[in-house]
Amino acid sequence: MLTAGPAKKVTIYVGRDHQYRGESVYMAILEFLFYHKVSGASATRGTAGFGADHHMHTDRILVLTENLPVKVEFIESAEKVEELLPKLREMVGTGLIEIQDTLVAKAAGLSTEGAPQATMPPLKREGKAKLMRIYVGENDKWHDKPLYKALLESMRANDLAGATVYQGILGYGANRRIHKEGMLQLSHDRPMMLSVVDTEERLRAFLPVLEDMVQQGLVVFSDVDIIKYSHNYQEGERRKEDRQ
Fold first, then answer.
1. Apex CA 49: angle with CA 96 and CA 40, to 5°?
2. What are phi and psi of 74, to 5 degrees?
3. CATH number of the domain bearing residue 138
């Protein structure tokens, strides 16, 4: 976290249409800084400018260009900036990086608006569980209802921990027909997968329900390791979880 005292101000100049791995360079830089826990960064767009190619870029109506200059700025400790520089040089390409000495008179505080008020560190639980995956077709029905929706409702009614439905874009099943989604050929029987993680006991207790609902499909079990982070536990609940 940035603190008051000597620091470095980094300014990066790139073109708006410059790309890095299929993404705008300035957006890629902001994401890189965010996920490397830089205290804060901002991007601003210029209305006119020129670079090393000496070509004028402007947003005037009569001379409109997409490659307007974009400036990304952040302030961090000298050690943090030194750590980030090699990757930033690679991302910027033909752009410009400027580094200035600066003094942080007051570091920005963390905003508490809308943030969870955690008074203690999150509880981390690890253990073993089972992953159940169910493969059915989008057109499969159960009592005139899409089977995947009925299965999801049934899982919730049977208090399974949680489930997610995935819609496939390409696949085939027991009938060996390829089902795919495309602009010229739209299949209305795409593969659907439901993914559930819970204890083996609870999942196997749900199998009779599955056997009644699924006429044609595939059910797969896998061993998984779970890591769960829980916030805002009451003290008594946390003590109970720690003893388990």
1. 50
2. -155, 160
3. 3.30.70.120
